[in-house]
Amino acid sequence: MALKELFDLHGKVALITGGSRGLGLQMAQALGEYGATVVLTARKQNELDEAKAHLEGLGIQAHVFSNDLGQFETIDPTVEKILAEVGQIDILVNNAGATWGAPTLEHPPEAWLKVMNVNVNGLFLITQSVLKRSMVPRGKGRIINIASVAGLQGNDPRMSPTLAYNTSKGAVVNFTRALAAEFAGRGITVNSICPGYFPTKMTQGTLAYGEQAILEHTPMGRLGTDADLGGLALLLASDASAYITGQNIAVDGGITSV
């Protein structure tokens, strides 16, 4: 097979949770540019509609479904609706996430549960649903979890404490390894991308508080851009990564190298 054919996603359906903006939309665009039909889920219908219009303006076939991963009872019905209306899910990008910044001694229990329910429990449930209903019966699939460099290390004391977020993303890192090992012989690969600091709605507070400290600690001396995740997402979603599984790959300008 020619190398360019390994990256071809025509005929594939890619489900991207939290895909209406930020990193999710960036990755949806990358997969769509290489032929995938993209399915976006997120909580806010207006943002989904804007994302769909943006993608279709680029010639990308896109479908949107409003869903909140923190509402567990909605997950299976949403997956079933996608399968009925769009088709089998070949690629799952677990991108939806939540965060909360607070000193540990002042961290509200309800905020801890919100972060865990979206970043860990909801991620598990939608992965389980897609595996059961689409990937395992067909013996093939690509799962890409969006973890974070926060799951690979502790928090710089100069930054706002984010214990729940760091803990949840550390869970995603090992979730990736364990799931990859379990399904390695069943045609399904599981990898994660661990972004560093990108200017998104979720990171607005962090960047407002500590952007200078982040840049000083980043060997490349810059934040991530709209072009920095698409290539890796495409690799992990395509046949070019058929022998790659269980990996947690940092895209962070070198933060985790020092």
Automatic annotation (TrEMBL):
GO BP annotation list: carbohydrate metabolic process; fatty acid elongation
Record-given protein name: Gluconate 5-dehydrogenase
Assigned keywords, A-Z: Oxidoreductase
An annotated Gene Ontology molecular function: oxidoreductase activity, acting on the CH-OH group of donors, NAD or NADP as acceptor
UniProt-listed InterPro entries: NAD(P)-bd_dom_sf (IPR036291), Sc_DH/Rdtase_CS (IPR020904), SDR_fam (IPR002347)
Highest classification ranks of the organism: Bacteria, Thermotogati, Deinococcota, Deinococci, Deinococcales
Organism: Deinococcus reticulitermitis
Family statement drawn from the similarity comment of this UniProt entry: Belongs to the short-chain dehydrogenases/reductases (SDR) family.
